[in-house]
Each structure stands twice: as C-alpha cells, then as structure tokens.
What we know:
By secondary structure, the protein is α+β, with helices and mostly antiparallel strands. It is built from six helices and five strands. It has a five-stranded mixed β-sheet with strand order 2-3-5-1-4.
Amino acid sequence: GMPQASAGVYAESDAAGIYNGAETGAAEMQSNVLDEAAKSVSRKIIKRGYISIDVENFDETSGLLKSYTEQNSGYIEQSDQYADYDSQTNSYRSKRGNMIVRIESSKFSDTMAYIETLGTVTSRSETAEDITGSYVDTQSRLEVKEQEKQRLMELLEDAGNMSDIITIEGRLTEVISDIESYQAQINAYDDVVDYSAISVSI
C-alpha cells in the first residue's frame, strides 16, 4: 500500500547523503545504508506448505500436479515414488510418493487449494518466515563492500610503490570474495522468497 510508495521517495532523496558521507567510516555508513534499505525494501517472506492427500490413482494425480505446476510457471524440484509390496498376494499394491513443488509465491494459496482438490486431505500446514532483517543486513554489507572496492580501485590507480600495490591488491581480492559471497546469499534469499516450496505426500 501507501507506505511502500513513500519509502521509494525517501530512498531517492537520502541516497545522495549516504554517498557524500562515504569517508566518515564504514560503521557509520553501514547504519545509514541499513536505514535506507529497511525503508525501501518490501517484506521478504518465505512461504512453505506441507500437504498430504489420499488418492485413487497415484500416476494420474502426480501427472495433474506436474502439469498444473508447469502451466503456472513453477517446477517440480524433487519427486520420488514407491509401491507397497503385499507378500500375501505376491504383488504390488498402491503406489505412493512425495513431490516438492516450487511455485511463484504469489500463487502459493491457489496452488495449495488446487492440491486439496486432488484427493482426501489427511494433513496440511503452512509456515511463513520473515527474513527481511537478514536480507537488509546482507544487502547493506554488500553495498559497503562495493563502495570499499571502488575506493581500493581508486587507491590502486594512485599507488606509487610496489609494496602499496601488493597490499591494496591483497585487500581487493578479499573484498571481491566478500562481495561474491554476499551476492550469493542474496540470490539464495531471492530464490526462496520468490518461489515457495510445497511438499506433497500422495
């Protein structure tokens, strides 16, 4: 709603202040960046669903679920199946299995509702985990490292002697490695926030 729209405006007007104060030290800068990021980021929620259903025909149900998922731009992350062996009749009875469906989080509730129509629901639960704080923190650390990288690149251009160059390059390598790991963390967060996981036992 409204708060998000105005947060964007604040973020724009205050951003210049952050960069101007870049020399005031990383600690102070990080708290500025954190405040900014908290204002402009929308809530980051990881939704997970668990649902167990009894069905007449495993193959038919898993086929329906697979096509529903693909039609809704999702994918099956994991799928396994097994059959109950009946030693009395020396034959396999009903097939059972588990599937992990990954679906856009905006379609989470619809997908849960759809799965419920496929059989008799024997258990069902869902969880929502708010990771906004961790997300914002990681984002701000990344931004601070990006700015440090920029300053090191500038120092490297001005460096006169070999020992300075070696020291700066060593630090630059560390900073680039930090940037890559923070970026990987953000990508992992984005993946679980954007695509909910629903575990289905059939």
